[in-house]
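Exercise: predict the fold of this chain.
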Amino acid sequence: MTPFREHPLPRYVFAVFCTGIATIVALVTRQFFAHGTLSFYLIAVMTAAWVGGRWPGLLATFCSVLSIDYFFLIPTQSLAVQSADDIAEMIVFSLVAVTVSFLQTAQKRARSALETLNQKLEERVKERTAWLSLVYDITGAANETETVDQAFRFALRRITSDPLWHYAQILTPREDASEILSPSHVQAVSDDPELMKLQDGASGIRIRRGEGTAGRVWDSGTVAWVKDVAGEPEAASKDFVKAGLKSAVLFPVVVGKKVVAVVECFSRDRIEPDQQLTDLMGAVGIELGLSVERKQLQEGYTEAVWQQQRRTAQELHDDLGQSLTGLWLLGTSLTEKLKETDHAPLARKLADGIEKSLEQIRAIAKGVFPVDLDSQGLMAALQELANVMGSASGVACRFECPDPVLLEDNRVAIHLYRIAQEAITNALRHGKPQEVVVSLHPTEEGIQLRITDDGSGILGPSERKEGAGLRIMRYRAAAIDAKLRVESNGGRGTLVTCLSHRAHRG
């Protein structure tokens, strides 16, 4: 009906058609009705006004008056009117028909306006619900993720999953230049080649504090809208325009009173600034800021524990270990001097006790700090771990490393070692395997650690209950931005894989 209503001629033709139908019906039925002929014409006027609007209704009124006069008033087949009663009847009919036409038109417009309002309201409710869902999902993920990187990546994926946003990136201060922002996380709609190309070139963006919209958001800590990306002065906006992006909203990630990152969300639609959306995006920034603050505190605590462990291991080895070594040498010397006397057994017992304590101190220091600081320390530590676990359990446990893996970051090495240690312990405790294999391989993406066994395997997802050991492994993997997978080893045993992107070959 929309094309019909948009063009005036069909509406007027329809009004004449309705009048013609009313005339035919009235002529056919007048032998059965002494009165009531005007009712058919009122129906025609109402129909013409409802479908076509006010003016087609008035046209139907005019045609109805002519038709009544010509066919039904004496003299028939003439437009002359002789009776005063007929004139009064025609005037009353005209007034009623005009009133009906106006009322029908007004009712139709009111109903149309109400339908439009309801439609807009439903769309608005859906839009607000989607935005609230976005904030809720990002808030939940920010609380559950182990690291800031994971929280940022999830936030971008969730933002670009909304039909409103097609490209998003998070700008953070560069490590080598704290006054310059650069994209650290980027997410585009995956099936769009133009946006994927834009994503690949994002690493070249450099923004100074206070310059451009992102720089101003970084400096002020407030949400900003860009209604027209093409009007932005930044050089990067040219690439955004080429990719078809038209509007953007930028909001800060704030920790305390400090802006630690700026999130940019781009759309290919023209979006006018909206206060409610502004508030919701600000809420997303606040939640991400709280997540960053929690993760920074957690990482700071972890680093403090790590440093304390290093100091403890160093003190045990250097201070207490050296003191016990001196006492052991003194005890050995004393044993030699008293070997021909009755005190020789006591002196030997003293020396052996000191030597045993020294070995215990070294073992404790080795447990606290199992990986040596040189780049080959992880390989040696995993080899020793396999030997010790195999000897202690009686299960064949071997280490495979066909190509040298040189790892300079000792912190990453420690976490990989602990993941392997926990995986072997879980396999021996729960799987009852005949063999456990630890392998270390360099890849194009980083370093891959694999622990496989031929035991009873793991339960299905519905039956599996994640224990403390697996949670610890996941936390350690997240701490070094590694990907951890625990799965069935082809139906026999368990396969634990940890791929560290931060680690690299020397």
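Check your answer against the key: The chain has 14 helices and eleven strands.
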